[in-house]
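Model it.
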Amino acid sequence: GVLRNLPLQAKLSGSSSTLTHSYEKGGYPVNEESLRTILNEALMPIHKSLNTLNDNMQSLEQRVGSLERGQGVLSNHFDKMQDEQSSLSHNVETVREEQASLSRTVGMMKEEQTSLSQTVSSMQEEQTALSRTVGIMKDEQASLSQTVSSMQEEQMSLSQTVGIMKEEQASLSQTVSSMQEEQTALSRTVGIMKEEQTSLSQTVGTIKEEQQYMKQAVLETNDTVTRMEKKMDHHERILDLLSRRSIEHELEIKHLK
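Modeled.
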C-alpha cells in the first residue's frame, strides 16, 4: 500500500522547509527537533490506527486475492485506493493539514473497507448461488440427454417398422397387380364364352328350324321321328347345361367385381 511505501517520518522530513522557522513558546525558542518530537507524539495515535488499518488491509487483500483468481473484478477497487492514498501524500503541505487529511482518509478507508467486505461477502454468496445453479443445470442436461437417447431409440424402431410396412405394401401391390391381370384374363374368357354361347344359341335355332323340316320330311317313318326326338332331348340337355354354366360364370364375375 501507499502508506507502507511512505512512512510518517519521511513525510515529516519532507515538510522540513516549513519547520525550519523558530517558534516562541513562553519566551524560549523551539527548534526543529523538539517540534518534530512533539508532532510525532501527537500523530502517534493516528500512526497506530494506520498500522492497524494496514494490517486489516493486508488480511483483506489476502481474502480478495483468493477471489481474484476466480472473479478478477476487485483490482479496480485497490487501484482506486492506491490513487487516493498517493494523491493524499502529495497534497500534504503542513503537519496539521496532514493530520486532518489523514483523519479523513482513515475514515474513508474504513468506509471503503466495510464496503469492500460487504462486496466480498456478496460475491461469495453469488458464487455459492451460481454453483447451485450450475449443479441444477448439469442435472437437467443429464436428464435431457437421456430423453434424447430414448427418442433416438424410438425413432430407430419406428424407422424399422416403416421399412417392414413398405416391403409388405410392395408385396401387396404385386399381389393386387397379379389379381388384376387374372381378372382381366377371366373377363376375356367370359367374353369368349358369351360369344360361343351366342353362336351356340344361333346353332340351336338353326337346329330347331331344321328339326321342323325334318319332322315334316320324316313323318312316314316313326323310327326316324323317334331318333330325332332323342337328338332334340340331347340337345336340350346340352343347352340347359350350357345355360347353367353361363349363369354360374356371370355370378362369379359379379362376385369378383
